[in-house]
Write a structure and sequence with these properties.
single chain, 423 residues, alpha/beta, UDP-n-acetylglucosamine1-carboxyvinyl-transferase, Chain, 2 domains, 4-stranded mixed beta sheet, 14 helices, 31% helix, elongated, binds uridine-diphosphate-N-acetylglucosamine
């Protein structure tokens, strides 16, 4: 047991029913907040979820000298007075996404020094593609003692970049870096996630000239300056997907409001195969599951629009209870099966071999004392505990707070029984 960590006590066996309004997207908010520093003027971002990761981004921006005002779901960033261009190891370790400051700071100031990032412990997660792309834009990069120093005293140059793989973070850093570069930048084999399209919309609202997000190639025409802007972030497709699995695993009936169904298609396709009933409207989805066990289905995580790796642990929790065996292949991250040992403690029958898990469905899960190792693993364990026959204790829920706003309160409003205990 970890000292001082918070825990969830979860009493399983309740059907989740009701309506919930999905929050703004964490993974859209983080690059947008980082990109606010591209401008000297005040930027307003609305619909931001109240999460630990957002708090960390706020701390990083403040540390750099920006004035950040956070009220409810609205964050205003005044980056006119940025003083520091170095991000300490402590701040970088708290959240990997702090590396999204690389592109904006370089673009505006021509210099940045950051420590290698931390974040979820789901594999080595290098930054070679970010750095290779920046080098192609004329940035001189030194890597020493765990720090990356990047310099472009004469400004960045537009160029053509072909990513080896469609990394979300590399696409975002290179997009933001190119907004203030001289000339045109073409980035090929980019990530196509909705959060990339969202970043393009935001950058263009500030006066950038970005096109192509959502396709394989993004074109950025450099401009000399970016301006004030106001933007509302898209709904969080992973928070939404987690609620959908919650309805499925508890034989529940949940209506999600504030969703973009298109973004959830990869998840809905698999949920339908498991036998869940979905009613899809313009910006709402109703998820119903009768008192039956789900069908077994195979899942392979892929880049968008494939099945998202961020939903793999939650689906594994559901498939632990399936009629039959499912094969789950994780192709994005090398070490994203830390939930497996904990699900086994709850009675799941899962066999692991390299990046593939064979999940042989069992009729019931039992309550257990389990440890949360990372954000989405934590979500999976909450879901499993909601379905389990007895009570469970989840240790290390600070990982869950990074990406799920007031999870216990929001789930309890739907009929769950989750209690947060400190120490
Ligand atoms: C983002 C998401 C994360 C999600 C992931 C994949 C945010 C804040 N986080 O993370 O929730 O799980 O996309 O959808 O938006 N890689 C390299 N070299 C690089 C960069 C990445 O080899 O320079 C590899 C990584 O090790 C990983 C894969 O590419 O295996 C995907 O990583 P990437 O798309 O960059 O994920 P993140 O942006 O870190």
């Amino acid at each position: 047991m970890k000292k001082d960590s918070q825990k969830f006590l979860v009493v399983g066996g309740n059907r989740l029913k009701g309506k919930v309004c999905v929050n703004g997207s964490k993974n859209a908010s983080l690059p947008i907040l980082a990109a606010t520093l591209l401008s000297e003027e005040t930027i307003t971002v609305k619909g931001v979820p109240e999460l630990q990761d957002i708090n960390t981004m706020k701390d990083v921006l403040t540390y750099l000298g920006a004035r950040v005002t956070w009220t409810g779901k609205k964050i205003m960033v005044d980056g006119s007075d940025v003083q520091s261009l170095e991000i300490s190891e402590e701040l970088m370790r708290r959240m990997r996404a702090s590396n999204l400051l690389l592109g904006p700071l370089l673009a505006r100031f021509g210099y940045v020094k950051i420590s290698y990032p931390g974040g979820c412990d789901i594999g080595s997660r290098p930054m070679d593609l970010h750095l290779k792309g920046l080098r192609a834009m004329g940035v001189v990069i030194k890597e020493k003692f765990g720090y990356i120093t990047a310099e472009a005293p004469g400004g960045l140059q537009g160029t053509e970049i072909h990513l080896d793989l469609p990394s979300v973070g590399a696409t975002e850093n290179l997009m933001t870096a190119a907004t203030l570069a001289q000339g045109i930048t073409l980035i090929r084999n980019v990530a196509k996630e909705p959060e990339i399209v969202e970043l393009q919309v935001f950058l263009n609202a500030m006066g950038a000239k970005v096109t192509g997000a959502g396709t394989d190639t993004i074109k950025i025409e450099g401009v000399s300056k970016l301006n004030a802007a106001e933007h509302t972030v898209i709904p969080d497709r992973i928070e939404a997907g987690t609620y959908m699995v919650a309805a499925a695993i508890t034989n529940g009936d949940i209506t999600l409001n504030n969703v973009i169904p298109l973004h959830l298609e990869p998840v809905m396709a698999k949920l339908k195969e498991t036998g869940v009933r979905l009613t899809v409207n313009k910006d709402a989805i109703r998820v119903q599951q009768d008192a039956v066990r789900p069908n077994a289905v195979d899942i392979k995580t892929m880049y968008y629009p494939g099945f998202p790796t961020d939903m793999q642990p939650q689906m594994m929790a559901l498939l632990s209870l399936a009629k039959g065996s499912s094969i789950i292949s994780e192709t994005i991250f090398e070490n994203r099966f830390k939930h497996v040992s904990e699900l086994r403690r709850m009675g799941a029958n899962i066999h692991l071999e390299a990046n593939t898990a064979v999940v042989k469905g069992v009729a019931n899960l039992s309550g257990a004392y389990v440890e949360v190792s990372d954000l989405r693993a934590g979500a999976a364990l909450v879901l499993a505990a909601l379905a389990a026959e007895e009570g469970s204790v989840l240790d290390g829920i600070e990982h869950i707070d990074r990406g799920y706003e007031k999870m216990e309160i929001r789930y309890n409003n739907l009929g769950a029984r989750i209690i947060r205990v400190k120490g």
